Amino acid sequence: MRKRMIAPALAATAALALAGCSADDDGGSGSSAEGEWPEEITLSLVPSVEGEDLAEALDPLTTYLSEGLGITVEGVVATDYAATVEALGAGQAQVLITDAGSLYNAMEQYDAELILRDVRFGATSYASIAMTNNPDKYCAGDVVTATYGATGDELSYCNGTEAGPEAAGQGPAGLEALATIDDGTQVALQAATSPAGYQYPIVAMREQGIDTDAGIVQIPVEGNNNAVLAVENGDAEVGFAYWDARSTVIEEAPDVAENAVVFAYTEMIPNGGVAVTPDLPEDLTAELTAVMDEYADSSEEAASVMFDLVGLSDWTAETEEEQITRYGEILAEFSQ
Questions:
Q1: 170 with 184: CB under 8 angstroms?
Q2: What's residue 193's pLDDT?
Q3: Cα separation of 20 and 65, whole Å?
Q4: Residues 191, 194, 199, 205, CA torsion sign
Q5: Which domains are assigned to the chain?
Q6: d(Cα 201, Cα 132) in Å, to the nearest integer?
Q7: Average pLDDT score over residue span 249-266
Q8: Contact in structure between 270 and 117 (CB atoms under 8 Å)
Q9: Average of pLDDT values for 165-174?
Q10: Would residue 323 be called left, alpha or beta, if left means φ above 0 and alpha means ψ between -120 and 50 degrees?
Q11: What is the pLDDT of residues 47-68, one digit of tens each?
């Protein structure tokens, strides 16, 4: 009979209240060349839902995984993404649903295995857009329009960022135009922790020879919508946000397509995903990957739970690990 070893709960002030587990080697089903399957595993995530019974919100997913694997899967809530990594390192969680930066840290610090990537609206990554209200300066050719599929809005682009009627949002593109930014140019930037609103744009401008500390005037804004509005209303000549945040302000700024033209895309910024501890048996990891990959398509309820719980439309086993690695390199530039 397998023994369940439950890790003690962390103090109330700690990042998580988790239960970990392991198994001894006497009997039980689901064994592999690397060892017997544990009787229970713990999944840690930061949910999107607020003000709800989170245990109840997690139940459909953990029930599905438990039934699919034939072992108990417990779900626990982390206070932030970094706490999911701490939980894995402490052996208090074996599976993480977390952001790209935490995936990188878990892989680097604890040899976690990346098994799935998050899919939002059909994509596992997204670009940061560089916008301007001065297209004569930043656009080498004509401004064109393309349809942003998520909302159906017609938005404006140049420098080959979009070449067809349907906007794809694929970067990098047009980055050489960032070299046109003059000393003293007002640039709308979000918090330093924002990949699309600060980190990737800063790296892109530096690579084009821009002194982002003394060569530009940083206009601090809160949120992607305000980055768009800063360009649209003339508070900044250039601004950065996720693709395509312009759609979020069309009701209050109906002329945004004319007044905030996208002239460049950064490198693609990775969505988060799912990682597991290297201590899990290899065949359990493979089965967990398959079961989670099928979850969103298993029922309408599952698709709804997934979007409501973690804001995703699907997972994919095409992990594109190099994007996570690149993200880690960029994060390192802002941790020194």
A1: no
A2: 87
A3: 16
A4: negative
A5: 40-121+271-324 (3.40.190.10), 125-270 (3.40.190.10)
A6: 14
A7: 96
A8: yes
A9: 96
A10: alpha
A11: 766 555 666 778 899 999 999 9
